[in-house]
Amino acid sequence: MQAVFLGSIGTIADTSELQRAAFNDAFREHGLDWQWDRDTYREMLGQAGGRARIAEAAKAEGVDVDAEAIHATKTRLFQAALDDGAATLRPGVADLVAHARDKGLKLGVVTTTSRGNAEHLLAAVGLEQERFDIIVTREHVEQPKPDPECYAYAAKCLGVDAAACVAVEDNPDGVRAARAAGVNCYAWPNENTAGQEFGDATMAGRDIDQAVFGAAA
User: Fold this and answer.
1) pLDDT tier at 182, thresholds 50, 70, 90
2) Is pLDDT larger for residue 128 or for residue 44?
3) What's the whole-model pTM score?
4) 215 pLDDT band (50/70/90 cuts)?
5) Which of 100, 102, 103, 163 is nearest to 134 (CA)?
6) Most buried pick, 85, 118, 157, 174, via CB within 10 A?
7) What pLDDT is attached to residue 217?
8) Which residues have C-beta within 8 Å of that of residue 195, sequence separation ≥ 6?
9) DSSP-assigned states of every residue in 14-74
10) Nearest-angstrom CA–CA distance, 205 and 93
């Protein structure tokens, strides 16, 4: 193992319900009577990208909306919730980061959310950005997940072999991105992606540090 990559920010803190609430609040701010319940949102999580979900919902409703503006409002509301302390680290993440550092492994966050979301999330859970060798966000790549570009970019920047890296992902598109880049992947579902199909990823238990380093011991 040469590097460990935390994929979606949901692998650091389970933000799925915070994001759903932010979507619904954004819809109200934009005068839409949409309300995504948990079952609806769970179905949408098979596809990465909030803008794409908004656009698809508008298409299904037969209405014209400014998906970019709605998503910007959702992002503002989500980041405000993070700043208010609404997120906590998932089990084993702090130990995973410390363990990777102790072993001299490269450590990265590889997400295609915005840089702002990643920075707010890391600050909210007390993980200093300096602890990571690389933080890849949507600003670094042309194609979002499930395209493998973000993982290929991370491996190239760090000078590591993709096949000697391990990724942790909480959604199917993230797993597809990692595997398409040749990166070994642990699927660690969040409360809204549990039960989805994660392909050939290794399913992780509750504690991600034990899943990754216990298997490598």
Assistant:
1) very high
2) 128
3) 0.89
4) low
5) 100
6) 174
7) 47
8) 189
9) --HHHHHHHHHHHHHHTT------HHHHHHHTTS--HHHHHHHHHHHHT----HHHHHHHH
10) 12
Inter-axis angle of helices 67-83 and 50-61, nearest 10: 130
> If we measure between CA atoms, which residue out of 168, 166, 165, 110 comes closest to residue 139?
110
CB atoms within 10 A of CB 28: 12
Helix 172-180 / helix 149-158 crossing angle, nearest 10 deg:
50
Retrieve residue 23's tokens: 């979507």
H or E, element range at 6: strand 3-6
Q: Which two tokens stand for residue 132?
A: 């990571």
| pLDDT tens digits, one per residue of 16-29 | 899 999 999 999 99
Give the SS3 label for residue 134: strand
Task: Identify the CA nearest to 52 among candidates 34, 38, 39, 71.
Answer: 71
Closest alpha carbon to 6 in 79, 99, 78, 102: 99
Q: Residue 45 is encoded by which pair of tokens?
A: 């999580």
In the block, which residue shows the tokens 């000078």? 159
Four-CA torsion 52, 54, 59, 60, nearest 10 degrees: 110
